[in-house]
């Protein structure tokens, strides 16, 4: 099945959190497809916003500085949109545990504000939501599918799950189309490189590039499903143009289970230098860590025709090349 992405040409598309990692990569592809893109971003630290993320398309998109927590700012902007990619979020698991109110305000209240704005101003819009594997918690079986129980182990996972339920409920009750993509460990160009609260593979690339030891907690045998950002972007676009996806939840990954230590070694190989050191888990991190995780994307493949195309080795190599070219834009502190 060929995904008809050309349908997005000329569409009015609104991206919350569009200056961040995945949102900006979506914007890049939408511009290439001829969509009319508006980016809405609060530019909050320590999150992933960076003006460099849209440097190549800055003249082709409208950027509005605004917070999803600000309903009065957000609501009027929804009226004319045809597609919304809801990417704005607090995405740090440890941050969610240390500041649960912040996480709730951004992830829950922000999403409710978007839902209310759609209900009141534009029920013809379609929304694709950035969910998370954190909504699942510790798997009771592998690979994880859409029917797996949801037992989050941290505030972030709980709030992302609640936000997903808000969106799908509002869509059902008020008659607008909504889809949730539960993302696995996404990596690639335009991810923030300034701290290790999230985007751990990217952070390890920075460690290796600076020849600093990579920290491996425990034995390094915990597993994840790492997916390159270009594949994730294609998943969002496919969900946006596929009527069969409406009202559904999809797991988005590669279906490949990779040991943490194998990922670290792949990073060191791609960079051409680096080392790693095993250290004990900090108690708070260990209490929310998941031992093994991998998904099946069968339902997404069947419904939309999307499938992942970039393997871990190629994705890491592409990512290293990107940051070698644009080191100063991503490693230096942001000033504004």
> So what's the oligomer here?
single chain
- Radius of gyration from the alpha-carbon trace, in angstroms: 19 Å
**DSSP helix fraction:** 25-40%
**Count of domains:** 1
Order of helices and strands: EHEEHEHHEHEEHEEEHEEHEHHHH
Would you tell me the structural class of the helices and strands? alpha/beta
Form type: globular
CATH architecture: 3-Layer(aba) Sandwich
Largest sheet: 7 strands, parallel
Mean pLDDT: 96
Report the total helices: 12
* CATH class identity: Alpha Beta
**CATH topology category name:** Rossmann fold
- Low-confidence sequence ranges: none
User: N-to-C terminal Cα separation, in Å?
Assistant: 45 Å
Explain this structure.
The chain contains twelve helices and 13 strands. It is an alpha/beta fold and 336 residues long. The chain has a single domain, classed as 3-Layer(aba) Sandwich (Rossmann fold), CATH 3.40.50.720. Strand 5 (126-132), helix 5 (155-174) and strand 6 (177-183) form a beta-alpha-beta unit. Helix 1 (21-33) crosses helix 7, helix 6 packs across helix 8 and helix 8 (260-271) crosses helix 11 (312-325). The radius of gyration is 19 Å and the shape is globular. It starts with 11 loop residues before the first strand and ends in a 5-residue tail after the last helix.
């Amino acid at each position: 099945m060929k995904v008809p992405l050309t349908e997005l040409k000329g569409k009015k598309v609104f991206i919350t959190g569009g200056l961040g990692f995945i949102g900006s990569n979506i914007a890049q592809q939408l511009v290439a497809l001829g969509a009319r893109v508006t980016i809405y971003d609060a530019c909050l630290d320590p999150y992933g916003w960076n003006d460099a993320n849209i440097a190549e398309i800055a003249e082709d998109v409208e950027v509005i500085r605004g917070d999803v927590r600000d309903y009065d700012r957000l609501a009027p902007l929804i009226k004319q949109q045809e597609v919304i990619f809801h990417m704005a979020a607090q995405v740090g698991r440890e941050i969610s545990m240390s500041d649960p109110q912040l996480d709730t305000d951004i992830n829950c209240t922000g999403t409710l504000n978007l839902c209310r704005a759609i209900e009141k101003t534009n029920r013809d819009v379609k929304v694709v939501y950035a969910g998370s594997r954190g909504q699942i918690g510790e798997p009771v079986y592998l690979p994880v599918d859409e029917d797996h129980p949801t037992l989050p182990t941290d505030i972030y996972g709980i709030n992302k799950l609640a936000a997903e339920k808000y969106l799908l409920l509002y869509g059902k009750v008020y008659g607008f189309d909504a889809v949730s993509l539960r993302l696995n460990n996404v990596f690639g160009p335009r991810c923030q490189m300034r701290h290790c609260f999230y985007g751990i593979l990217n952070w390890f690339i920075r460690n290796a590039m600076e020849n600093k030891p990579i920290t491996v907690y425990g034995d390094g045998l915990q597993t994840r499903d790492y997916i390159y950002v270009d594949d994730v972007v294609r998943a969002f676009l496919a969900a946006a143009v596929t009527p069969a996806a409406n009202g559904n939840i999809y797991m988005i990954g590669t279906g490949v289970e990779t040991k943490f230590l194998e990922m670290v070694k792949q990073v060191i190989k791609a960079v051409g230098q680096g080392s790693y050191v095993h250290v004990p888990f900090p108690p708070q991190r260990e209490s929310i860590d998941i031992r093994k995780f991998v998904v099946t994307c069968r339902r997404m493949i069947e419904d939309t025709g999307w499938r992942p195309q970039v393997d871990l080795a190629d994705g890491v190599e592409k990512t290293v090349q990107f940051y070698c070219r644009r080191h100063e834009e991503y490693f230096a502190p942001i000033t504004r």
